[in-house]
């Protein structure tokens, strides 16, 4: 069998077009404050791409570039100012931060209603309880890929390899909310291959290059590869793509699968946060 390729680039483009339409229907343009601390080149590239796509979707780019030696207190104060600024409807603190800063304590300062990365404890609690809120972008992107590819989630056995706060855990919760039967594998799981082989939907998010081979895939299963690894031969994922695509029914490539979805879902979260903020202000008679 040769699997259908799930084209994340094309699906992300459709999501961005949908978001640009949604922006025009809002009473005011959303404002995304990306906060970049220091000059880490990889972070600078990610942030610049987020800002560019934000502007292309018709949103305000309210970027803040702060010095790498900024104090914990000063950065916390900046975040409080962004929380209080009505033009800022979304805040993204680019991680990782320089070593002298306590990232968890700073993320905790972000207003959960502006937490477009979905990383605050309140956002995680809202997700766990199925309450409305902002969800982490990469897991939401995986769900969007499955929906756009018309892969049924309800009643499917979904196996998520990885249990990080950023990807594995929130993704397992999103799949559960969509009525999948969810199994989570992690570094202490006995016989990961045997568990993966039972999956109708297999998501690899372990951060181990080539962890998932043909022997881990049930014939016809959908395989979503979240992993990203820079190698001498370019980007590759957690899945041995050539081998797994002989067995899977559908599969995401790396690059061009989950990666492009992450920023698209950030834009989606920024619209969602702005719409909720405007609805609140309308109720208070501001619009
Ligand atoms: P992480 O290191 O925080 O978590 C990895 C998880 O995988 C852990 O829960 C660990 O228990 C589990 N694990 C590790 N080795 C395992 C093994 N051999 N078998 C089973 N489970 C194992 O990583 P993360 O932040 O969740 O990221 C995972 C991967 O996804 C990385 O490659 C990262 O670069 C990539 N990523 C991609 C995007 C994107 O936009 N595509 C976004 C975030 C992360």
Query: What sequence of helices (H) and strands (E) makes up the elements?
Result: EHEHEEHEHHHEHEHEEEEHEH
- Which stretches of 5+ consecutive residues score pLDDT under 50? none
- End-to-end CA span: 56 Å
Radius of gyration, rounded?
19 Å
Give the fraction of residues assigned to helices. 40-55%
Q: Which geometry do the CA atoms define?
A: globular
Mean pLDDT comes to 97
Number of strands: 12
Bound molecules: nicotinamide-adenine-dinucleotide
Reading side by side through the largest sheet, how are the strands ordered? 1-12-9-8-6-7
Number of helices: 10
Give a quick account of the main beta sheet: strands, pairing sense, barrel closure.
6 strands, parallel
Structural class: alpha/beta
Taken as a percent bin, the fraction of beta residues is: 15-25%
Protein architecture, described:
The protein is an alpha/beta fold. The protein is 40% helix and 15% strand. The protein has helices at 8-24, 41-56, 72-84, 103-107, 121-129, 137-148, 168-177, 192-196, 241-244, 259-283; strands at 4-5, 31-37, 60-61, 64-66, 90-93, 157-161, 181-185, 201-204, 222-225, 229-231, 234-236, 250-251. The strands form three sheets. Strands 1-12-9-8-6-7 form a six-stranded parallel β-sheet. A hairpin with a 2-residue loop joins strand 10 (229-231) and strand 11 (234-236). Helix 2 (41-56) crosses helix 10. The chain is globular. Nicotinamide-adenine-dinucleotide binds at residues 138, 161-164, 166-168, 185-187, 189, 192, 205-208, 211, 226-229, 258-259, 262.
């Amino acid at each position: 069998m040769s699997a259908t390729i799930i084209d994340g680039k094309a699906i992300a483009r459709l999501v961005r077009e949908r978001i640009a339409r949604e922006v025009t229907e809002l009473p005011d343009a959303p404002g995304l404050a990306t906060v970049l601390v220091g000059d880490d080149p990889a972070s600078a590239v990610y942030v610049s791409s987020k800002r560019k796509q934000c502007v292309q979707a018709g949103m305000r780019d309210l970027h803040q570039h702060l010095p790498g030696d900024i104090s914990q207190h000063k950065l916390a104060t900046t975040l409080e100012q962004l929380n209080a600024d009505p033009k800022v409807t979304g805040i993204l603190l680019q991680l990782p931060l320089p070593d002298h800063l306590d990232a968890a304590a700073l993320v905790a300062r972000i207003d959960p209603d502006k937490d477009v990365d979905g990383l605050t404890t309140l956002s995680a609690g809202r997700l766990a309880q199925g309450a409305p809120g902002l969800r982490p972008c990469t897991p939401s992107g995986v769900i969007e890929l499955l929906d756009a590819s018309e892969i049924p989630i309800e009643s499917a056995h979904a196996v998520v390899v990885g249990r990080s706060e950023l990807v594995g855990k929130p993704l397992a919760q999103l799949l559960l909310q969509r009525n999948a039967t969810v199994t989570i594998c992690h570094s202490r799981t006995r016989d990961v291959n045997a568990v993966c082989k039972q999956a109708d939907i297999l998501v690899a998010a372990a951060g181990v290059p080539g962890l998932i081979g043909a022997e881990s895939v049930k014939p016809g299963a959908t395989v979503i590869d979240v992993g990203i690894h820079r190698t001498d031969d370019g980007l590759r994922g957690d899945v041995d793509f050539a081998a797994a695509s002989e067995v899977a029914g559908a599969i995401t490539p790396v690059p061009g699968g989950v990666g492009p979805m992450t920023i698209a879902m950030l834009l989606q979260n920024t619209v969602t946060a702005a719409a909720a903020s405007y609805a609140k202000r309308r109720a208070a008679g501001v619009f």
